[in-house]
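Thread: Modeling a multi-component assembly for a lab meeting

Hi all, long-time lurker, first post. My supervisor asked me to bring a structural picture of a complex we are working on to next week's group meeting, and I have zero experience with this. I have the sequence lines for every component (227 residues in total). Could someone generate the structure of the whole assembly? Inputs are pasted exactly as I received them:
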Amino acid sequence: EAGVTQFPSHSVIEKGQTVTLRCDPISGHDNLYWYRRVMGKEIKFLLHFVKESKQDESGMPNNRFLAERTGGTYSTLKVQPAELEDSGVYFCASSLGTSNSPLHFGNGTRLTVT
Amino acid sequence: GDSVTQMEGPVTLSEEACLTINCTYTATGYPSLFWYVQYPGEGLQLLLKATKADDKGSNKGFEATYRKETTSFHLEKGSVQVSDSAVYFCALRSASGTYKYIFGTGTRLKVLA
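Re: Modeling a multi-component assembly
Sure thing. I ran the full set together rather than chain by chain. Output:
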């Protein structure tokens, strides 16, 4: 089966610009998560979708971040306008709905805001 | 809230040396515990897991035991290889609420030939 895919793998933008990250989960995985890792720090939870619904968005840093999952398939994470502190690696992960289903991660998108 | 604390790296070892990466957690209830590994240029992969106290997870020669009394889940391997060089993340899956995963800071391991 195809794994979780993320696009782009790298993005370099200037402060104030907009960037949209995309994640395609494993087919059939209802749960989709976004995480972010800032250099050398922990992988921080951003939000969790169950199908197209936001189950938990407590980790979203502010209203410059908007995540969507229309139709319950792929998801996008838009940052508008980007700030320097948004730089980091954004990971997407998906899992089945059972309580002990492991997370399957994409390779991440490295975002650099200059 | 729930949290994970793991030892800071980097850890540099010679091939065939013993490895221990410490991980402790704070959580309500009985979370599931995981070790994930990230090889260079790749995403995170599940290495092993344990879902209840005293469970031992193992994979690829790595082991970790769920210790409720010390709230720990230390990763061990008796003889590391160059191919084990990667970043290792300890994580827990909350036992309540939205069951989200919480990760530690990651520990970079470098194994020298």
